[in-house]
Amino acid sequence: MATTRSAHTVWEGNLFKGNGVVSFDSSGSIAQQPVTWASRAEDANGKTSPEELIAAAHSSCFSMAFSNILDKAGTPPTKLVTSADVTFQPGEGITGIHLTVEGTVPGISEDDFLAAAEDAKTNCPVSQALRATPITLSAKLA
């Protein structure tokens, strides 16, 4: 069954001096978050950005995909810690994403762990949606 998740943003003013508020409509799990051009292109100063939201989506999607791949191989993870760093260059856009994962996975070899991580990087739905962006990966067993 397909699912749809929704969010919306209310923006006031121009790009450089304006500001907005992002609302997470589907879950309501995150309070409204402020967003500005400065929080995107300069210092966050307690506000979010589209790139931070992409990083959250990518790190969680990768973790789910990686967990599933490992489980199907008979080596379910005890723990995966994944971070995503999304680089934004004003005037160019999103220029790259770097995923970093450290996993506790009993009974798996380093080579199998790395292969499964690469599979998750390539095939998680968020990676698929972002395939026009260079995505790199660092993975290690704990």
From TrEMBL:
Which InterPro entries does its entry note?
KH_dom-like_a/b, OsmC/Ohr_fam, OsmC/Ohrsf, OsmC_Ohr_Peroxiredoxin, Peroxiredoxin_OsmC
Instruction: Report the domain of life of the source organism.
Output: Bacteria
Any single Pfam family the record assigns to this protein: OsmC
Q: What GO MF annotations does this protein's record show?
A: peroxidase activity
Q: A Gene Ontology biological process annotation?
A: response to oxidative stress
**Sections of the chain in a coiled coil:** none
Q: What is this protein called?
A: Peroxiredoxin
